[in-house]
Specification:
The structure holds three protein chains of three kinds. By secondary structure, chain A is an alpha+beta fold. Chain A is built from two helices and six strands; from the N terminus they run E-E-E-H-E-E-E-H. In chain A, a hairpin with a 7-residue loop joins strand 4 and strand 5. Chain A is globular, with a radius of gyration of 15 Å. In chain B, about 25% of the residues lie in helices and about 30% in strands. Chain B is built from four helices and ten strands. In chain B, strands 1-7-10-9-8 form a five-stranded antiparallel β-sheet. A five-stranded antiparallel β-sheet of chain B has the order 3-4-5-2-6, with helices on one face. Chain C has two domains: about 190 residues, 3-Layer(bba) Sandwich (FAD/NAD(P)-binding domain), CATH 3.50.50; about 160 residues, D-Amino Acid Oxidase, subunit A, domain 2 (D-Amino Acid Oxidase, Chain A, domain 2, 2-Layer Sandwich), CATH 3.30.9. In chain C, helix 2 crosses helix 9 and helix 3 crosses helix 9. At the A-B interface, strand 2 of A face strand 8 of B. The complex binds flavin-adenine dinucleotide (FAD) and zinc ion. The site of flavin-adenine dinucleotide (FAD) has 39 residues of chain C, from helix 2 and strand 12.
């Protein structure tokens, strides 16, 4: 398994740190259901056998946080995006839907 | 209180580099280095300031350019490392701070890193033993840069010329571990060669 | 031997030879032509009292103790592949009860006691070998942590001996004691720990359960649950519908997949763990040795191969194979601990899918779905738990109340703040 960092190109797995499921979203700590939401967010995982979106950190490379979409049954990597871009896109999407 | 005088010392405890026509290594420990990163929204202003001051076009991705005796090495997204010989009392941090006021943050790196130069026709084979990237000339050539690791030691690696000559910058405290690995990797090309 | 056994009478009945010196002698005299299969290859029936999903060590031991302690019951074990094809046949066979936390020690010690009587109980040679498990320490801080763990063990009646460097040198003189980075200062020894032949455990429990009337149904994959209101009443399988009063999941690395069919999301991630075996050598490592400064542990099998492993690969995976960086990392650990291993040739390496829980400890509990029971979260340490896991899970299924020794392994402990985190890593499954 190799990961193509948008900054550095295709690199060996030992340059990266796995930082978990990228599909879970930190809940609103002030919400009325915050307690339950945080339990779900912190502990429960879908853990699907196919495609999975996850966070990886290019620790021994450029130090970028990445969102990697990967099939966890074959280890085939489908896409690698900068986590920054993903977060900014999500932000502008919520802005758009709010306006 | 007693007076303490700090004298610079080498980062290497055990330094016996290969020195053959096919493979030579040397340590560059008299450099002045500074890292700089663009302030938010100031990337363009930074490029213009560097170009005006040194005539250099900062590499957008992993690359290295030389201008006015300074090497500008890409060191991550929107970050660079400026390197030159510490001649006279040249101090890159002070110099860049003055030129980049308000558009970039500048931090002295002179004593944080050591640069090891490895050159000769065997240099590529030696590096390939510990560096997990493709060093074939098609993939890596003069001007190329990679932030990676060599036998677990984090390095910024770049190629200087077609000899080929490579340079690896690493944190000083890891320099001895790097040298340990390098000399062992180099041994087969150094000993008992006709 | 395969004929005439319905297996659904609920009454214990014999289906295979009782193993003894006399049966071995008899078979030796007739050229070993009289041995029958150790268990029946059963066909599914329309319904059972209890259906256990997963024919690994835990599913089979659950079936055995359920039939033995709570029968008569009509029980089936449904296995999608073959008995022993999962983690029970992929692990590095280490058994021990050298835990620190109150929720864990009594449970793993019960398991150790069950191992000690297992072969007599099952009339099956599982090659239980109490050759000792030695955890090395490499610093003063690590010695103090091991002393604390040893004390906790002894307070619970578990054997533990803190050894200094000289004592360890005597046991395993060939280690690199004076390694510049990771000098060996001593070790914590559990003399009763050791190894057990992993697939013989699956076979032994399968045979034991079969003799008590349990149907072991291979090539039978569960593909969905049949619900009646809030309750599960059966399973859809690749071999048809099977009704059940109670359904118990013991599917290890597949826990999230099977639970999802019942609409559940678990505090589990699936990760791959690799293991390695070398060519056979003359005996030289008596027990199990673990390196305390990296991820490496080793023992020598009865065939002479060095069996070793290290850390998880560290990312979610359902592929029963890992990647090269961990192979390198494990070999580096081996070289740091015992440089002579560099001369040995590797024969095989493989991977298994671990059900990594959010605190590194298991779950044996009812689920929010009526009639559905969960056994999961075994991480990379569930082989040693096989007897106690089945013993306590059987109790839970039969009595609808947790066995006292496994009472801490609740599914809701994360929500209530009762996580059992031996390593103190927090909810990061790849770090446990
Ligand atoms: C490389 C490695 C080394 C290990 N070393 C040790 C060790 O030294 N000591 C230790 O204590 N533990 C160790 N473990 C952990 C231990 O092997 C596991 O925790 C334990 O075996 C899991 O329980 P099990 O035996 O029931 O799992 P499994 O044998 O995996 O059983 C689960 C079964 O469920 C079946 N299944 C899944 N989905 C379905 C379905 N839909 N329908 C029907 N059946 C299904 C699977 O086919 C499988 O056979 C190791 C694991 C690995 C991979
Ligand atoms: Zn990168």
């Amino acid at each position: 398994m190799r990961i193509a960092c948008p900054h550095c190109g295709e690199r060996s797995l030992d340059e990266f740190l796995y930082s978990g499921d990228a599909t879970v979203k930190r809940p609103d700590f002030a919400g009325t259901t915050a307690m339950d939401d945080f339990v779900t967010y912190t502990f429960e995982r879908t853990n699907p056998p196919g495609p999975h979106r996850e966070l990886w950190y290019h620790a021994a490379g450029c130090h970028a946080w990445l969102v990697v979409t990967r099939n966890v049954s074959t280890h085939a990597v489908a896409s690698v995006e900068l986590a920054r871009d993903v977060a900014l896109a999500a932000k502008s999407a919520t802005k758009d839907s709010a306006s | 209180m007693a007076d303490h005088i700090l004298t610079p010392s080498s980062a290497f405890m055990d330094w016996h580099p290969p020195a053959t026509p096919k493979l030579a290594a040397s340590a560059r420990e008299t450099l002045t280095m500074a890292s700089f990163a663009a302030a938010r929204g100031k990337e363009q202003a930074l490029r213009e300031a560097i170009s005006a001051a040194y005539g250099a076009v900062l590499p957008k991705s992993a690359g290295r350019v030389e201008a006015g005796g300074i090497a500008f090495v890409w060191a991550g997204p929107d970050q660079w490392l400026a390197i030159t010989e510490h001649e006279g009392a040249r101090d890159l941090e002070a110099e860049l701070k003055e030129k980049l006021t308000g558009i970039a943050s500048v931090v002295d790196q002179s004593d944080s890193r050591v640069v090891v130069r490895i050159s000769g026709s065997r240099a590529r084979s030696v590096l390939a033993k510990g560096v997990p990237i493709d060093l074939h000339p098609r993939a890596f050539a003069p001007g190329s840069v990679a932030i990676t690791h060599a036998s677990h030691v984090g390095i910024i690696l770049w190629q200087v010329d077609d000899a080929p000559t490579y340079e690896a910058a690493m944190f000083r405290s890891y320099a001895d571990s790097f040298a340990h690995w390098l000399f062992e990797a180099a041994a087969e090309y150094v000993s008992a060669q006709p | 031997m395969m004929k005439g056994q319905t297996g659904a009478t609920g009454r214990p009945h014999m289906t295979s030879t009782h193993y003894s010196i006399f049966s071995v002698l008899r078979e030796a005299l007739r050229g070993h032509t009289g041995w029958g299969p150790a268990w029946r290859n059963a066909e599914p029936k329309p319904d059972y009292d209890v259906v256990i999903i997963g024919g690994g060590g835990h599913g089979l031991s659950t079936a055995y103790y359920l039939a033995k302690n709570y029968g008569p019951l009509r029980i089936a074990v449904l296995e999608k592949g073959w008995i022993g094809g999962g983690n029970v046949g992929r692990n590095t066979t280490i058994v021990r009860s050298n835990y620190l936390l109150p929720g864990n020690i009594p449970f793993y010690e019960l398991s150790m006691k069950l191992w000690e009587g297992l072969e007599q109980d099952l009339n099956y040679n599982a090659m239980v070998s109490q050759r000792g498990v030695l955890n090395l320490y490499h610093s003063d801080a690590q010695r103090d942590a091991f002393a604390r763990r040893g004390n906790a063990m002894r307070l619970h009646g578990v054997d533990a001996v803190l050894l200094d460097q000289a004592a360890v040198r005597k046991m395993v003189p060939f280690l690199d004691f004076d390694n510049g980075r990771f000098p060996i200062h001593g070790g914590l020894l559990q003399p009763r720990g050791g190894t057990v032949r992993h697939d013989a455990v699956a076979w032994g429990y399968a045979r034991g359960a079969d003799r008590l009337g349990v149907d072991i149904i291979q090539n039978c994959e569960v593909k969905g649950f049949i619900r009646d209101g809030g309750r599960v009443t059966g399973v859809e399988t690749s071999r048809g519908l099977i009704g059940a009063k109670k359904i118990a999941m013991a599917v290890a690395g597949s826990s999230s997949r099977v639970a999802a069919m019942a609409g559940l999301r678990l505090p589990i991630e699936s990760h791959v763990l690799q293991a390695f075996v070398t060519e056979g050598l003359k005996p030289f490592i008596d027990g199990v040795v673990t390196f305390g400064a990296g991820h490496f542990y080793i023992s020598q099998s009865d065939k002479g191969g060095l069996v070793f492993g290290g850390d998880l690969d560290g990312y979610n995976s359902y592929a029963q194979r890992g990647n090269m960086p961990v192979v390198e990392d494990v070999c580096e650990g081996g070289m740091a601990l015992m440089p002579r291993i560099g001369r040995v040739r590797l024969l095989r390496h493989w991977g298994g899918i671990m059900d990594m829980s959010m605190d590194g400890s298991p779950i044996i509990d009812k689920t929010p779905v009526d009639g559905l029971y969960l056994n999961s979260g075994w991480c990379y340490g569930g082989f040693k738990a096989t007897p106690a896991s089945g013993y306590c899970f059987a109790h839970l299924i039969a009595r609808d109340a947790p066995h006292p020794v496994a009472a801490a392994y609740r599914l809701d402990r994360f929500a209530t703040g009762h996580a059992i985190d031996e390593k103190g890593m927090g909810p990061q499954p790849n770090l446990h």
